[in-house]
Write a structure and sequence with these properties.
- There is one protein chain.
- The chain is about 40% helix and about 15% strand.
- By secondary structure, it is of the alpha/beta class.
- The strands form 2 sheets. The protein has an 8-stranded mixed beta sheet with strand order 4-3-2-1-5-6-7-8.
- The longest helix has 20 residues.
- About 40% of the residues are buried.
- InterPro entries: DGDG1/2 (IPR044525), Glyco_trans_1 (IPR001296).
- Its EC number is 2.4.1.241.
- It is found in: Plastid, Chloroplast outer membrane.
C-alpha cells in the first residue's frame, strides 16, 4: 500500500508562550492528523534555558525536549480536550531581543528525513526564511505552503526610520516567498500582497471557547443574566499590540466614558510604561497580569474591546466571539472575517467607538447560529486550509533538474532558471556572517552552538545532525 502523504508544520514559537504562532499551528497539526488522517509532524523551536527565561511566562522552563513535548501534549489535552496522533520535533533556535521573536539556527529543513519530505507548512514563511542558509525548501519538499500570520510591515513602520525599513522589508519578503513557497495563504488582507497568495482565514478557536459560548447563550435564552462584568482587553503588553490605540481612544473621551470600568490583562516588555500611562487617566482602568483567555476569570465579561490594527486575524477576538461576547474593534482588513458575526461591532472614528462601547455595555449579545459557531471551529478552519492550500491535489514526485538546449527553453523554463538563480543568490548572501548580521540575524547562527547541540542531543555542529523523534 502507498504510504500516506506527510505534512511537516514549522512554527516560529511554541507553548508556553501564549502567542498565535504557538497555539494555532498546534491546533492545525492536531486537527489535520485527527480529522483528515494525514501523517503530521509539528516542528517547533527549542530554546536554551537562558532564552526560555526571556520568553516563557511564569518562570516555566524545560531541561529537555522530552519535558517540553510532555507539557505541550498535556496542555492540548487539559485546556482543549483534544487528543491527536501527531509527532513533535524540535529545531535549534535563539531568541532575538531586538525583534522580540524566535529565530531558527542552522538549516532546519534537515529536521525532516528526505523519505517523508512531502509537504511543508511554514507558519510565518518570511520569518522562517529571512536568514535561511541550507537546502532550498522547494528542493527538499514536493510542496511548500506558507501561512502569513504577522503584519511585519506595520510593526516596522512604528520603529525608528520605519518607512525606509518597511520599504526594504516588503521587497525582501516578496523575494524569499517567491523562491521558497509554492503557495501562500494570507489570513487577511491586512498583510502585504505576496506571490502565489490567496486570502483565507484558516484559524479556528479552542473548542473550550465554543462550549463557554453555548452555556452563556443558554442563560440569555433562559432569561437569566449571563454577564456580570463590563469591558476588558487581553493581549501581549507591548505598545504595538493595541495598547497605544486604546490609550488614545480612552484619553480623548474620558468625559463620555467616565462611568465605565475596564480591565486589561497581559505581560510584556512594555508593561511598566503601559501601566504608568493608563494610571494617569481619570477612568476606572485596572491592569492585571496575563492569563489564559479560557480561564473562568473571563467568562463573566460581556464586552471585549480590541482596537489593534497590527494584527492579521486576532485570535483573542475570535475567542471572545466564540464565548458569546460583544466585540468592539476597528473597521480594518484584519477584522473582515469577524464582520459576519452580529456581535462584532466595528468603528471608523473615535466618536463611533464611544457610541458602540456604551451601547454594547447596555445590551445583551445575540446568540450565535450553528453555522456561525461552526465557522469559528477548528474543524471548519481545517477544511478551509485544505482547500486553500490545495492539499488534496496529487503531488508529483520530485524531479531531478535536467539541462535543456538553449533554443528549446520555454518561458516557464526561463522563469524557473531565474528563480533558481535568485535562490542561489539568497543562499550565498545568507551564508556570509557579516551580511547576515547587517540584515538583523543573530550572530553565529549558521550552525547550532555546543549548548544547543548538547540540549538537543546533536553531534558536533559541523555534522549538521538534528534532533527528531
Amino acid at each position: 500500500m502507498a504510504r500516506k502523504q506527510h505534512i511537516a508544520i514549522f512554527t516560529t514559537a511554541s507553548l508556553p508562550w501564549m502567542t498565535g504562532t504557538a497555539v494555532n499551528p498546534l491546533f492545525r497539526a492536531a486537527y489535520l492528523a485527527k480529522d483528515c488522517g494525514w501523517e503530521v509532524t509539528l516542528v517547533i523551536p527549542w530554546l536554551s534555558l537562558k532564552d526560555q527565561s526571556l520568553v516563557y511566562p511564569s518562570k516555566i522552563t524545560f531541561t529537555s525536549p522530552v519535558e517540553h513535548e510532555a507539557y505541550i501534549r498535556l496542555w492540548l489535552k487539559e485546556k482543549a480536550e483534544v487528543v491527536s496522533d501527531f509527532k513533535i520535533t524540535f529545531y535549534p533556535a535563539k531568541f532575538s531581543k531586538e525583534k522580540r521573536s524566535i529565530l531558527p539556527v542552522g538549516d532546519i529543513t534537515e529536521t525532516i528525513p528526505d523519505q517523508v519530505a512531502d509537504i511543508a507548512v511554514l507558519e510565518e514563511p518570511e520569518h522562517l526564511t529571512w536568514y535561511h542558509h541550507g537546502r532550498r525548501w522547494k528542493t527538499k519538499f514536493r510542496r511548500v505552503i506558507g501561512i502569513v500570520h504577522t503584519n511585519y510591515l506595520e510593526y516596522v513602520k512604528r520603529e525608528k526610520n520605519g518607512q525606509i525599513h518597511s520599504f526594504l522589508l516588503k521587497y525582501i519578503n516578496n523575494w524569499v516567498i517567491q523562491i521558497y513557497c509554492h503557495k501562500v495563504v494570507r489570513l487577511s488582507a491586512a498583510t502585504q500582497d505576496l506571490p502565489r497568495s490567496i486570502i483565507c482565514n484558516v484559524h479556528g478557536v479552542n473548542p473550550k471557547f465554543l462550549e463557554i459560548g453555548k452555556i452563556r447563550h443558554g442563560l440569555i435564552l433562559g432569561g437569566q443574566k449571563a454577564f456580570s462584568k463590563g469591558a476588558y482587553f487581553i493581549g501581549k503588553m507591548i505598545w504595538s499590540k493595541g495598547y497605544k490605540e486604546l490609550l488614545q481612544l480612552l484619553s480623548e473621551h474620558q468625559h463620555e466614558l467616565w462611568d465605565i470600568q475596564m480591565d486589561l490583562y497581559g505581560n510584556g516588555e512594555d508593561s511598566s510604561e503601559i501601566q504608568n500611562s493608563f494610571s494617569k487617566l481619570a477612568l476606572h482602568v485596572r491592569i492585571h497580569p496575563g492569563r489564559d483567555h479560557v480561564d473562568s476569570l473571563f467568562h463573566d465579561y460581556k464586552v471585549f474591546i480590541n482596537p489593534s490594527t497590527t494584527d492579521v486575524v486576532c485570535t483573542t477576538t475570535a475567542e471572545a466571539l466564540a464565548m458569546g461576547k460583544i466585540v468592539i474593534c476597528a473597521n480594518h482588513p484584519s477584522n473582515e472575517f469577524f464582520m459576519q458575526f452580529p456581535n462584532c461591532h466595528t468603528y471608523n472614528t473615535t466618536d463611533e467607538f464611544v457610541k458602540l462601547t456604551l451601547k454594547a455595555l447596555a445590551e445583551e449579545p445575540v446568540p450565535l447560529t450553528d453555522d456561525l459557531r461552526r465557522a469559528l471551529s477548528w474543524e471548519a478552519a481545517t477544511e478551509r486550509f485544505v482547500e486553500a492550500a490545495e492539499l488534496n491535489e496529487v503531488i508529483q514526485e520530485k524531479a531531478l533538474p535536467s539541462a535543456k538546449p538553449f533554443m528549446s527553453m520555454t518561458a516557464d523554463d526561463w522563469k524557473q532558471s531565474a528563480e533558481e538563480a535568485s535562490a542561489y543568490l539568497h543562499n550565498t548572501i545568507s551564508g556570509i556572517e557579516a551580511a547576515r548580521c547587517a540584515f538583523g540575524a543573530i550572530p553565529a547562527t549558521l550552525q547550532p552552538d555546543e549548548q544547543l547541540c548538547k540540549e538537543l542531543g546533536l553531534g558536533l555542529p559541523e555534522t549538521k545532525m538534528f534532533f527528531s523523534r
